[in-house]
């Protein structure tokens, strides 16, 4: 058996295995199932949204196809948002801006707002589209639709405690800082 150095062949093999993963002609989108989050703090009560550990599907688009897909998705989100605004306006009208109780207003749902009542076509989606915070009921509905049968109620209490703690930020200094009494100064940070 001949003793030939293998270092060069190992290096060559590593070079061959290394492929470039950046492509500028396509977009790869990984889809994940929704799960209860435990990683973010929504501005309203309830549970947070998260995603599964592993993706459940992958889709590849050309740049043009991806732009069209985004346009369709954004229009649908905009349509839902405009419907919710219209529903809220109808309820406010029936309750005289919330000052009068109305059984009719209480019974209204998104199905009561027709697509003819909203004008998505004359709205520039790119100018209007932005992420909207989801209300608690909507987040719960999304989790249920994704197959989450048991929503951990403890997260609701933990998130509430975090939101409250964020309101109590800084120190009680007024006009000037007394380093001996200032909680910020004692913690080694600039006086808030």
UniProtKB/TrEMBL annotation:
Pfam families: CSRNP_N. GO terms for molecular function: DNA-binding transcription factor activity, RNA polymerase II-specific; sequence-specific DNA binding. GO terms for biological process: apoptotic process. Its main location: nucleus. GO terms for cellular component: nucleus. It is found in: Nucleus. Residues 19-192 form the Cysteine/serine-rich nuclear protein N-terminal domain. The keyword Zinc-finger does not apply. Keywords: Activator, Apoptosis, DNA-binding, Nucleus, Transcription, Transcription regulation. Transmembrane segments: none annotated. The keyword Transcription applies. Belongs to the AXUD1 family. This is CSRN2 protein. The gene is Csrnp2_0.
